Amino acid sequence: MKRHSTDVVLVPASGTNGIVLTMDESGLTQQPKKPKLNEERDAVGRNIKCLHNLPEEILRYILSLLPTKDAIRTSVLCKRWEYLWTSIPNLNFSGLEPDKRKQFMNFVERVLLLRDSSDIKTFTLSCDVLRDASHVSAWISAAVRRNVQQLCIYLYNFRKPFSLPHSLFTCMTLTELELAMPCILKLPPTICFTNLKTLNFSYVTFTKEHSTEKLFSGLPVLEELELQNCNWVNLKVVSISAPKLLSIRIVEDWENQNDENGCQVMISGVSLNYFRYCGEFCNEYHVHNSPSLVEASVLASWYNERKRQIAHRMYMLLTGFSGVKELTLVFCAVE
């Protein structure tokens, strides 16, 4: 009768490898069992090899999904990865920790200095300006020179007057701009955002009527505008006119206003279909020449000491909504 071979597995003691005993016609033969750890290492090695063999464009895309610091850390993996980070399209710098101020400054300087000449898609900067206004301005200029498309700037704690680089206001590649800086925005004589589609200002103070008017009339393709707690100081009238403007959102807080009289803000957009206001009517808003308006909402706070002023300004705003299809008012606004 033919004898079949049989495998007998001996369970290893702690810390040892398993042994397979095979019984056949010649008797017992010992075969070492391949450790599971080695299999895992082999799998990791194969994955690393596959990742290493990917085209550089895909590797750069993978790096672009990582935080900037983590993307730069990959330079120690191997020779091929050493300089991949110098062309990642997205850069994000955040330095709001006082005890790490010097480290943050050196890090940003080094990244921008070693970066190659490739374009930047998204550049985000959040930091205190303090006495380093010239450095901060130079960083923004570096992003503009590399044809930045999306620029998000959040600046705090100014110790001296700060001016954004003039090149920012004529950047032809910029499609999205978000600017939060609780100080006066100094505007250059030439302003033209030829490709800007989204604009968000937060805590920005406008003081020059002519330059402010020039800013909001130099937006030929703007589609979305958001104004959060912005101040119009010493300005009587400001016009916002963008032929392709689709949406506008305004948020106001009386505590953040520097001018008690406020300003008349005239909004004209033939393509405007969404309008939202939330605040205390620190300024007077008028919407006109907007036949495409579909949805509008007004969330107004009500204060007895200003109720007549608020009521008047709300009435002036509502008169521009004659053709709106859907209008939402909070209870106090109805009252």
TrEMBL record:
Domain F-box: 48-96
InterPro entries per the UniProt record, alphabetical: F-box-like_dom_sf (IPR036047), F-box_AtFBL13-like (IPR053781), F-box_dom (IPR001810), FBL13/AtMIF1-like (IPR050232), LRR_dom_sf (IPR032675), LRR_FXL15/At3g58940/PEG3-like (IPR055411)
SMART domains associated with the record: FBOX
The protein, known as: F-box domain-containing protein
Superkingdom to which the source organism belongs: Eukaryota
One protein family per Pfam: LRR_At5g56370
Database matches in CDD domains: F-box_AtFBL13-like (cd22160)
Organism lineage string: Eukaryota, Viridiplantae, Streptophyta, Embryophyta, Tracheophyta
